[in-house]
Amino acid sequence: MTRPTATTATLATALPASAVTIATDPSTEPFWQAARERRLVAPRCADCGRFRLPPTPFCPHCQSTAVDWTELSGRAVVYTFTVVRGYPGLPDITLVPAVVDLPDAPGARLVTNVVGCDPADVAIGAELTVDFHPVSDGWLLPVFRLAGPPGAARAVREQA
Ligand SMILES: [Zn+2]
Known about the structure:
13% of the residues lie in helices and 34% in strands. The chain contains 3 helices and 8 strands; from the N terminus they run ααββββββββα. Strands 3, 4, 5, 6, 7 and 8 form a 6-stranded antiparallel beta sheet that branches.
């Protein structure tokens, strides 16, 4: 019998599929349908051109209901984050919930998880790339992984 190494046990991950249920409505369903196809999209007002996330029925700037769903590159930058150790029923899990800026969608931010890294390597300003994590009912949840070599984000933090 093998025990997980300390490194494995502390890697940031996402919640197990069964713990996440996606509820859609007409204003959010295109986001989730695209994620199911491993595409990251954001709603852009078809009248004033501003991006908005989370998706809303009306543009908060001009009240238009016209929307263009724009496919993004999947690049993101950490705006802020926290580290959560343990979750009800999952005492050994490590989560890094984060709010990220999307360089291709100025003004839009996404609440997500950074996964697959040592939480000590996550920093404000760190560059990320999207990945998709399976959740309940066949949906895929956009999550993000650190772009670049391990320690790159730490270097960004130490320069700040
Ligand atoms: Zn607008």
